[in-house]
Every structure is written in C-alpha cells, then in structure tokens.
TrEMBL record:
SUPFAM superfamilies: dsRNA-binding domain-like. Keywords: RNA-binding. Residues 3-72 form the DRBM domain. Coiled coil: none annotated. It comes from the Eukaryota. GO terms for molecular function: RNA binding. This is DRBM domain-containing protein.
C-alpha cells in the first residue's frame, strides 16, 4: 500500500506549499472501539477526510483523498 502521507508531502514540496497543510484529528466511540477521523486542511480548506481504527489509518485515508483532490484540480 502506498504511503499517501509521504506522497502528499512530496507533491506539496513541488508546489512549495508544505507549510499550508494542517491536520485535525478527532476520536469517537467507546474506549475499546475508537473510531478516528483525520481532516487535511490546505490553506484552511478541507481537502481530505478519512476515518479508521487508528489515527494513522485515518490520516492515510485523508492524505489519499487530499492528494487526489490536488492532482485532479
């Protein structure tokens, strides 16, 4: 599986805008069944959102969505 967080950072480096990417994280659910949500913000606009059983899974899913958003526009 591709590391979309690295791919996203590499893409932003080519644009010279890595500092404009921020992450927000949330947790929900019971302690033993946590659901994590990650949101990728670029210039304070949501460009990716992902969920997963761990923070890293959620971030990976959000990064994939963000990269797709940036490369399609």
């Amino acid at each position: 599986m591709a590391d979309f967080v690295v791919l996203l950072n590499n893409h932003l480096q080519t644009l010279g805008t890595t500092r404009e990417l921020r992450w927000q994280f949330e947790e929900s659910g019971l302690k033993h069944q946590r659901m994590h949500t990650a949101v990728a913000l670029y210039y304070d606009n949501e460009i990716g959102k992902g969920t997963g059983n761990s923070k890293s899974q959620a971030k990976l899913a959000a990064a994939a969505q963000a990269l797709n958003h940036l490369t399609q526009n």
